[in-house]
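Researcher: Let's do a round of design. I'm pasting the C-alpha cells now; please hold your answer until I've finished.
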C-alpha cells in the first residue's frame, strides 16, 4: 500500500532558493512480505536447478553418497569412499598429468570460483568503477565460467550491455590487486564476451639456461625461451622483422644470442647467414666467427647495411616474375641482419651523413626484405621517435624492461599497457623477461628469453664458424 505520511505531498526545502521553493517527495511503496519470501524461494530453486549443471561431479558424488548411506548404511558408505580414495591415489601416482587436468585443476577452479571470485566480485568491481547504474539499480558483469591452468585462472565474463572491453582493459591494475594476483590480462572473445586471466604465481621467476641446439632449424619458429603458460617461446625471423627494446641490463643480448644459437645448424650448412652490427664491440664480438659479415664502427655499419640492400635488390630482381616466396638454399641463404643498439647509427653518430644513410638502408631493408629472405633483428634502449622513427616497419616487437609507462605503447602499440603488458614494472632482477606482440595479434604475451653465457658463446663460435661444424 502507499504510505499516506507525506506521500506525494509538497514539502518546504530546508534551504529554499529563488528558482525552486517547492519540492515533491517520491512516493514510497511497501513490498508485501509474501513477495519477498516468494523471491527468496525462487532464487533457492534456481540455485538448486543450476547446481547439477555447474558442478555435476560434486552433485553426483553427494547424491550417490546419500543413496548408498540410505540403502546400505554408513559402513557401506565408508567402504565406497575408501575404494574411491584408493582409486584416486593410484590415478594420481600412475597418470599424474591426466589426474591434474581432469581432477585437480577442475576442483581448484570450483574452489576459486566460489571463494575468490564470486565472493569478492561485487565489492572489487564496484570499487574499480566497473559497476553500472540505471534507474537506481546496479548492474555488474557476470561470471560465466572459471577455469584453471597450471599457472593461472581464466575468468570468462559477460559484460553489461552498453559497456566495452576497453572499460575493463583500463582497470586491469585494480582487478589484479582486488583479487590478489600479480597481474591481469584481458582477451576479447566476442561481443560482451571477455576473459580475465589472473596468474597465481610467476612461472618466469627462475632463469632459463641456454637451450639445446635444435637438430632441424625452422626459421619461422626458433626456440628462444619460455612463455608464461609454460610453452616454449619460438621467435620468428623468416618473413618478418623484430625490434627488441629494453634498458641496459634488461636482457636484449639474451634474445639475440638465443636466436643465433637456434640458427646454428642452418649457419653451418650455409642456408642461413648472420650479418652483425656491433657498435659497442662488447656484445656480438664474442661470436664474431659465427657471422658472415661484421661491423663495429659507424662507417663500416653503414657499408654493411648498404651491402645488404644491394644483395636484397639483386635477389628481388632475379625473383621478379618467377617466385614470390623465399626458400633458404646455399645459393640464396636466409640473411638475418642483427643490429645491436641501432640508435647509434640512426641518432647518436656525430656524422649526419652516416645517420641519414643508415636510416635509409634500414628503411629499405625493413620495407622490402621480408619476401626475399632478409630479416632485421634490431636492439634499442630508447624507443622515442626522434631516436628511431622506423618502429612501425618492424611487424614483431619485444618489450623488455622499460623506464616509463608511456614507452610500453611506443614499443608494443596503442592499448598494450591496458591489456596487461606492464613492461615498465618488470623486476630488474628478472633479465630476459619481456612482453611480445606479434603482427596481427593485439594480445601481448609474456615470455623469458634463455640466457646464453659467455662459455656457451665460446663453444658456439669454436664449433660452428664460417667453415666449421656444428657444436
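Researcher: That's everything. Go ahead.
Model: Designed sequence:
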Amino acid at each position: 500500500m502507499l504510505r499516506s505520511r507525506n506521500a506525494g505531498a509538497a514539502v518546504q526545502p530546508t534551504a529554499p532558493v529563488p528558482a525552486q521553493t517547492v519540492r515533491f517527495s517520491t512516493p514510497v511503496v511497501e513490498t508485501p512480505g509474501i513477495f519477498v519470501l516468494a523471491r527468496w524461494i525462487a532464487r533457492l530453486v534456481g540455485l538448486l536447478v543450476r547446481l547439477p549443471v555447474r558442478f555435476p561431479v560434486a552433485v553426483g558424488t553427494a547424491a550417490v553418497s546419500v543413496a548408498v548411506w540410505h540403502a546400505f548404511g554408513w559402513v557401506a558408505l565408508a567402504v565406497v569412499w575408501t575404494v574411491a580414495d584408493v582409486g584416486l591415489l593410484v590415478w594420481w601416482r600412475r597418470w599424474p598429468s591426466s589426474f591434474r587436468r581432469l581432477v585437480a585443476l577442475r576442483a581448484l577452479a570450483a574452489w576459486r570460483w566460489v571463494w575468490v571470485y564470486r565472493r569478492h566480485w561485487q565489492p572489487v568491481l564496484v570499487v574499480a568503477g566497473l559497476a553500472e547504474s540505471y534507474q537506481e539499480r546496479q548492474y555488474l558483469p557476470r561470471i560465466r565460467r572459471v577455469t584453471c591452468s597450471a599457472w593461472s585462472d581464466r575468468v570468462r565474463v559477460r559484460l553489461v550491455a552498453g559497456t566495452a572491453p576497453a572499460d575493463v582493459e583500463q582497470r586491469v591494475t585494480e582487478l589484479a590487486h582486488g583479487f590478489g594476483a600479480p597481474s591481469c590480462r584481458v582477451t576479447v572473445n566476442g561481443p560482451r564476451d571477455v576473459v580475465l586471466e589472473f596468474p597465481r604465481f610467476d612461472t618466469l621467476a627462475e632463469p632459463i639456461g641456454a637451450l639445446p641446439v635444435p637438430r632441424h632449424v625452422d626459421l619461422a619458429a626458433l626456440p628462444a625461451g619460455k612463455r608464461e603458460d609454460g610453452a616454449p617461446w619460438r621467435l620468428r625471423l623468416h618473413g618478418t622483422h623484430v625490434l627488441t627494446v629494453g634498458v641496459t641490463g634488461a636482457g636484449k643480448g639474451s634474445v639475440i644470442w638465443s636466436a643465433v644459437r637456434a640458427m646454428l645448424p642452418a649457419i653451418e650448412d650455409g642456408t642461413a647467414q648472420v650479418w652483425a652490427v656491433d657498435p659497442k664491440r662488447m656484445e656480438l664480438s664474442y661470436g664474431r666467427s659465427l657471422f658472415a659479415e661484421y661491423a663495429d664502427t659507424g662507417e663500416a655499419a653503414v657499408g654493411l647495411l648498404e651491402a645488404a640492400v644491394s644483395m636484397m635488390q639483386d635477389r628481388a630482381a632475379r625473383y621478379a616474375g618467377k617466385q614470390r616466396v623465399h626458400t633458404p638454399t646455399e645459393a640464396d641463404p636466409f640473411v638475418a641482419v642483427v643490429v645491436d643498439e641501432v640508435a647509434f647509427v640512426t641518432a647518436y653518430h656525430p656524422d649526419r651523413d652516416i645517420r641519414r644513410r643508415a636510416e635509409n638502408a634500414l628503411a629499405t631493408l625493413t620495407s622490402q626484405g621480408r619476401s626475399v629472405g632478409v630479416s632485421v633483428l634490431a636492439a634499442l634502449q630508447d624507443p622515442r621517435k626522434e631516436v628511431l622513427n622506423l618502429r612501425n616497419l618492424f611487424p614483431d616487437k619485444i618489450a623488455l624492461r622499460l623506464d616509463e609507462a608511456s614507452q610500453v605503447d611506443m614499443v608494443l602499440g596503442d592499448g598494450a599497457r591496458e591489456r596487461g603488458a606492464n613492461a615498465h614494472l618488470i623486476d630488474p632482477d628478472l633479465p630476459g623477461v619481456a612482453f611480445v606482440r606479434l603482427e596481427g595479434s593485439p594480445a601481448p604475451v609474456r615470455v623469458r628469453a634463455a640466457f646464453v653465457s659467455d662459455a656457451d658463446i665460446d663453444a658456439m663460435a669454436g664449433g660452428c664458424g664460417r667453415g666449421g661444424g656444428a657444436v
